[in-house]
């Protein structure tokens, strides 16, 4: 993605390189595995995860605002890239909201962190992957996740994988400010586990769709290979791909994010149409 020369966003909170006393160390290993399975990029399941995370953090504190080490050149560059992605989402979603008479777009904050972070949804370790917290309307990104995406999940990597995941999390913000997330939570309370999982899949696929819609409107800045990087990331984090890798078999009833095929399909549908009205994943998934 061409990302040089953007204005500076007022919504980027860079907490990288801050020291913390306890880094969710002892006893965190097992819990961290659970969190990865539940939340791998991204639920806006921050709220339901909070009780699990509380267990981890009760006896350990994460201090923010301690000493800050100097960021490396690579980290600084990644920060500048993230700034460009955030600015582009701000400009594009403001425009889409205007065009669709959805009122003023309320920009989310994006927090960059290393190791662990305190959010409005509880304390999270980097193992939870990128997530959106509806309670404070912030996206939390630990950028080391993208090294794992490449080395452990076999994705291509590349800058646009990061852009896609960020846009997916911002998709959850869109769902929150449009009231979709609240409706999903209500419906989930009235159904069984399999029904709740299906609703979660529809919500996640719609976030992928919104990421595609953003990419469509950002296409002047795209470079060759960018869409492939996004699709490769989407492919790597499909529920079927994750289950095959972690448990050797696939149980569709337990899917919460959708298959690799579904994730690629909805991202591409958003990318091709650029039209938020085409993103009714719910009627497709629930029927
Ligand atoms: Zn998500």
Automatic annotation (TrEMBL):
Swiss-Prot/TrEMBL keywords: Membrane, Transmembrane, Transmembrane helix
Domain of life of the organism encoding this protein: Bacteria
Keyword Cell cycle: no
Region annotation Disordered: where it falls in the sequence: 1-23
TM ranges: 24-42
One GO CC term on file: membrane
Subcellular location: Membrane
Primary subcellular site in the record, as a coarse category: membrane
Membrane topology: Single-pass membrane protein
Protein name: Metalloprotease
């Amino acid at each position: 993605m061409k990302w040089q020369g953007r204005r500076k966003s007022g919504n980027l909170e860079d907490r990288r390189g801050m020291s913390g006393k306890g880094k969710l160390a002892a006893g965190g290993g097992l819990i961290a595995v659970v969190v990865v399975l539940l939340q791998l990029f991204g639920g806006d399941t921050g709220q339901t995860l909070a009780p699990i995370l509380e267990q981890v953090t009760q006896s350990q504190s994460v201090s923010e605002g301690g000493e800050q080490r100097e960021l490396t050149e690579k980290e600084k560059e990644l920060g500048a890239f993230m700034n460009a992605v955030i600015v582009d989402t701000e400009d594009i979603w403001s425009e889409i909201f205007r065009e669709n008479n959805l009122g003023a777009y309320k920009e989310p904050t994006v927090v960059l962190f290393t190791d662990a972070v305190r959010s409005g949804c509880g304390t999270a370790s980097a193992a939870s992957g990128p997530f959106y917290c509806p309670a404070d309307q912030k996206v939390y990104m630990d950028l080391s996740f993208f090294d794992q995406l490449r080395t452990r999940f076999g994705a291509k990597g590349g800058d646009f994988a990061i852009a896609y995941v960020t846009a997916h999390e911002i998709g959850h913000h869109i769902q929150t400010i449009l009231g979709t997330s609240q409706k999903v939570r209500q419906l989930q309370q009235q159904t069984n586990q399999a029904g709740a999982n299906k609703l979660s899949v529809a919500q996640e696929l719609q976030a992928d769709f919104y990421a595609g819609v953003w990419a469509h409107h950002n296409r002047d800045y795209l470079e060759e290979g960018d869409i492939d990087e996004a699709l490769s990331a989407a492919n790597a984090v499909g529920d079927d791909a994750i289950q095959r890798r972690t448990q050797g078999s696939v149980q569709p009833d337990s899917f919460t994010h959708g298959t690799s095929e579904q994730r690629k399909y909805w991202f591409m549908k958003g990318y091709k149409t650029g039209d938020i009205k085409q993103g009714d994943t719910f009627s497709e998934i629930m029927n």
